[in-house]
Amino acid sequence: MAGFLPSLETFAKGTLATAATLSTVGAGLLYYGQNYLIYPPHFHRDPGQVRSRRARWCGKLNYAEDVPVPSTYGLPYEDLELKTSDGITLRCYLLPQSKQLSKTHTAATPVPGEDDTTEDEFIVSRPTVVMFHGNGGNHGHRIPLAKVFYLRMRCNVLMVSYRGYGLSDGSPSEKGLQIDAQTALDYLTADPLFSQTPIILYGQSIGGAVAIDLASRNPAKITALILENTFTSIPNLVPHALPLLGPFTFLCHQKWDSASKIPSIPTTTPILMLSGVADELIPKEHMRALWEIVVQRGETKMHESSQGLERAKYLEFELGGHNDTCVQPGYWTAVADFVAALGDDNSEKAETKL
């Protein structure tokens, strides 16, 4: 037996050394590599190809297929360049409404009285949806979703391209994306037409965190939020997404702490939460936890409204995964009803003022 003790001691020391090494590697990976883990598309871009595509953008030509354009889906749009406060150029898509749309697109929902307005008046009469996409792909990959907002709900749509994504400059980070979102909102609130429209933020996954942060910092400028499959915070998500790195969440410098920001959003701001129960990346418990925080803000329903607009509504889709919740039955009906109720609510407020 004594002959085995040195071997056991050596094994124990070796195991501890290996564990220490793995811990060090894990800690280093999380601290220095978390931007790579959180914003992967940026690090997979070919700089030369991006520069070439930007050149074609400036020439108003169609560019590479990995950044789809709305015209491919039959949608009119504008290439919108936004300059951030720290000098980054964002290349986004803007889809302003047009009263001619119901005549040129059979899928467009007619709006009562649209023929009696000017083009500018019609834009002002419709809500504006600001779309914040998830961490995979780019804004061009969400055009099919924008199409539903644009044609079915007749919303103006601003599709934001974060720094480091699509054809936008820079490298992504929490602070950077917060600046990008603020830049998009500032553009709308400074515009003579869009500044008069209700502004709805639509965020998926990390885009939900972007939307929550923006709304918490601009409570008087945001009309409503629509959130899909987002999380309470990055540190809370790491143990599920990357179990081996769970012990090192204290090293997360990309926080996206939505749980602490929701209380700063007024109870009068309607919030629609859409959760895919089968989400394989973000456990459903995150959306449920955020919902509890939303409810705890206080008021959850609009009083004295003939339409009964719910200030906060939570829906689960049993078969909804991280990337396909938006195609589950009932998803877009819920979104359309929510947007329509906002319009009814605004009409009631206008009548009350009169």
From TrEMBL:
Signal peptide: none annotated. Keywords: Hydrolase. PANTHER family: ALPHA/BETA HYDROLASE DOMAIN-CONTAINING PROTEIN (PTHR12277), PROTEIN ABHD13 (PTHR12277:SF81). Pfam families: Hydrolase_4 (PF12146). One of its GO terms (molecular function) is palmitoyl-(protein) hydrolase activity. Residues 126-289 form the Serine aminopeptidase S33 domain. It comes from Mycena metata. GO terms for cellular component: membrane. It comes from the Eukaryota. SUPFAM superfamilies: alpha/beta-Hydrolases. The keyword Kinase does not apply. Gene3D superfamilies: alpha/beta hydrolase. This is Alpha/Beta hydrolase protein.
